[in-house]
Write a structure and sequence with these properties.
The complex is a heterodimer. Chain A is an alpha/beta fold. Chain A contains 13 helices and eleven strands. Chain A has two domains: 235 residues, P-loop containing nucleotide triphosphate hydrolases (Rossmann fold); 77 residues, no CATH class. The N terminus of chain A is likely disordered. Chain B is an all-alpha fold. Bound molecules: adenosine-5'-diphosphate and magnesium ion.
Chain lengths: 331, 340
């Protein structure tokens, strides 16, 4: 079943990405598969370093090649295989069909242009690509309107400001406004607000959720915050060491995690597992330059069997609860 | 507001430096062996005549008094008289400064127009052939002495190919006096004399190319590394994700934040440009202040040396102040916080 047939807005299939650094090749993504249905809120969770950001960058076409190399897989968005699209055509989707909310608001705005200048450029280039005719005044009105929608006080003043004049929370709102400016169908958010304090971060997440829901956008969000996932996500993908190891509707995942890694991850958050005792996952993620031949989690897995160390379990495709684990296969 | 204070601080500091410079040059010029009055009068003048000149120029007074007099004149804009020509140093410098200024301005224009695109190209195609070629050219430009380049250009483009004039600021057949700014090209334009403008440009080209090589190399190098730094920043990825095309990302979103280091370098390069200008001026018979300065040093023409050094110093300070303002314009962070 391919992405178009599955009805998903975005389908990633068996995506593999390597990084060539200092003569060594790191197989950082090794068979990532995920689906984002239209208008749904999909969460991507996993320890830091497991390849979530690389996945996002591959989808948005932001990987620098070299050192990165997409060695296998496909990324289907609205029926187009992005990896086989001409660079121009692919670039043409950025900002208009799909857009991204960046993680660090302090470094993601150009310091030498005003907010208004940067937003005007985003609108103007999209207008040109889409053959939309719009006057300067209309563009300005649109910018002010979207700044208002992200609850910026005094949008006119913000449009004239340089990034350095704004707080982190305000800059994050500006980044959200920029991503929404051209009404994309898919919004990708990489741990939005983690660079901010907890209160501001919570506000940003709530705002993002409201905006996405009001517009009926699909949201693919990376987050560390499993509480947020449980509260807001429709669907969850769990990544470990460069692959999606479990995928399920949020409720099902929290009720009955199937992959040992997911269980370990949920155990790390006492409120969610109800265990009340915080503990990390023993051991460290594998080295990407020489990953174990079988299941990448096997060296840290309490339930590992001999076959786990030789053959990687397959990840079934489908919309329901799935896990890449021999235990699940056997059951 | 912070930025204005920042500029005022810089200016105040520059004045201190200029004052120090005046003392230093004053002492050095007088400590160097050789009697300036004797040098000026020539070996056949009598001791009485020499003593007379010395008295006339105040060279028989104690050093502090000489310095006080000099500064007194300087504050009124009077650079004193040349020992050699007995003309006012002001007049000599007024005539020669414009020529050097025009040469340096043309050099900087060339260095920016060539160096920045080279740096941008090298950064855009980092580690590719373009980058290697640019780096090689930048190093060659930096290590080739300007007199060598000047002679090479003069021989090749001038004598062999007869493409461009090899001496002076203007063809002898043209009568034109740059009476507005002293800059041949600018005044020609202001008088709507386009023939003169074209001729002045043709005369400027070879000397400014010879002088520009080193600075161009520097600018290309600095622009390249600065662009490579900026290219890694999140905001460049963000611009891409928001659909800003590559051309705009490179020439606007990356270049402008990369612009401060090459601008700063340009300010510093000014000092060495004026220094290097004298060789180029000699080769191309360019009637400029740099070669005038060297002549006066060789002849120990005290007031003229002081005049050239002080004018160069003030020029350097003004240029760097202008660059500070420009930097503040390019990067609002500096303008807003007044820090750099
Ligand atoms: N530009 C790069 N060059 C080399 N390796 C990289 C690069 N970017 C990411 N990686 C590797 O990819 C792995 C996954 O990174 P990332 O996707 O950022 O993790 P996270 O899940 O925390 O977002 C990291 O362990 C890192 O080693
Ligand atoms: Mg990340």
């Amino acid at each position: 079943m391919n992405g178009a047939a599955s009805g998903a807005l975005l389908s990633v299939r068996d995506l593999a990405v390597t990084f060539d650094t200092y003569g060594r090749t790191a197989q950082v993504l090794d068979g990532v598969s995920l689906d984002v249905p239209a208008r749904r809120h999909v969460a991507l969770v996993g320890e830091s370093g497991c390849g979530k950001s690389v996945t996002m960058r591959a989808i948005m076409g932001l990987l620098r090649e070299p050192p990165a190399r997409v060695t296998a897989g496909e990324i289907i968005f609205e029926g187009h295989d992005l990896l086989r699209l001409k660079p121009r055509a692919r670039m043409g989707l950025c900002g208009t069909a799909m857009s991204m909310v960046f993680q660090d608001p302090m470094t993601s705005l150009n310091p030498v242009f005003t907010i208004g200048d940067q937003m005007r450029a985003i609108l103007a280039h999209a207008d040109r690509r889409l053959g939309r005719r719009r006057s300067r005044a209309e563009r300005h009105a649109r910018i002010i309107a979207v700044l208002g929608q992200v609850r910026m006080p005094d949008p006119e003043r913000i449009a004239r400001a340089w990034p350095i004049m704004l707080s982190g929370g305000m800059r994050q709102r500006v980044l959200i406004a920029m991503a929404l400016l051209n009404e994309p169908r898919l919004l990708i958010a990489d741990e939005p607000g983690t660079a901010l304090d907890v209160t501001t971060q919570a506000q940003i997440l709530r705002l993002l959720r409201e905006l996405v829901q009001a517009r009926g956008l699909a949201l693919l969000m990376i987050t560390h915050n499993l509480g947020v996932v449980r509260e807001a996500a429709d669907y969850v993908h769990v990544m470990y060491a460069g692959a999606v190891v479990e995928a399920a509707p949020a409720a099902a995942l929290f009720a009955a995690p199937r992959h040992p890694y997911t269980r370990a991850l949920l155990d790390c958050v006492p409120m969610l597992s109800g265990g009340g005792r915080f503990r990390g996952i023993d051991g460290a993620p594998p080295d990407y330059t020489s990953p174990p031949p079988g299941c990448r989690f096997a060296p840290r897995c309490a339930a590992a069997m001999p076959r786990c160390r030789t053959a990687p379990p397959a990840f079934p495709v489908g919309p329901d609860h799935r896990a890449a684990c021999w235990l699940v296969e056997a059951a | 507001m912070e930025f204005v204070f920042f500029l005022i601080r810089r200016l105040a500091w520059s004045l201190v430096v200029l004052a120090g410079l005046s003392v230093l040059i004053f002492l050095i010029a007088r400590v160097v062996p050789g009697d300036p009055a004797r040098l000026a009068m020539g070996p056949r003048a009598s001791d009485v005549q020499v003593a007379q000149l010395r008295a006339e120029m105040g060279l028989d007074r104690p050093l502090p008094e000489q310095y006080a007099r000099y500064i007194g004149g300087l504050l009124h804009g009077d650079l004193g008289r040349s020992l050699l020509s007995r003309r006012s140093v002001n007049d000599d410098i007024r005539e020669t400064f414009a020529a050097t200024f025009e040469l340096v301005l043309a050099t900087i224009t060339l260095a920016v127009l060539i160096g920045i695109p080279l740096g941008v190209a090298a950064a855009t195609w980092k580690d590719a052939t373009v980058d290697n070629a640019v780096r090689l050219v930048a190093i060659l430009g930096a290590v080739t002495p300007s007199f060598f380049l000047a002679l090479l250009l003069q021989i090749l483009a001038g004598y062999e190919l007869h493409m461009l004039p090899t001496t002076g600021r203007m063809a002898p057949s043209i009568s034109f006096v740059p009476d507005i700014t002293g800059l041949m090209t600018l005044d020609a334009l202001l008088h709507l004399r386009f023939d003169v403008f074209a001729d002045a440009l043709r005369h400027l080209l070879l000397p400014s190319l010879a002088l520009a090589a080193a600075t161009t190399g520097q600018i290309a190098r600095i622009t390249r590394s600065s662009m490579i730094d900026v290219a890694r920043q999140d905001f460049i990825d963000a611009a891409r994700a928001f659909g800003i095309p590559a051309r705009v990302r490179i020439w606007k979103y990356m270049l402008r934040p990369s612009f401060v280091p090459p601008l700063t370098i340009l300010g510093l390069e000014f000092a060495s440009l004026i220094g290097n200008a004298f060789v180029v001026e000699l080769v191309f018979a360019w009637p400029g202040m740099a070669s005038y300065g060297v002549r006066t040093i060789l002849q120990k023409d005290l007031n003229a040396v002081m005049g050239v050094v002080m004018v160069s110093g003030v020029f350097f300070v003004l240029v760097n102040l202008a660059i500070d303002v420009l930097v503040g314009f390019v990067d609002p962070r500096i303008r807003i916080t007044g820090a750099r």
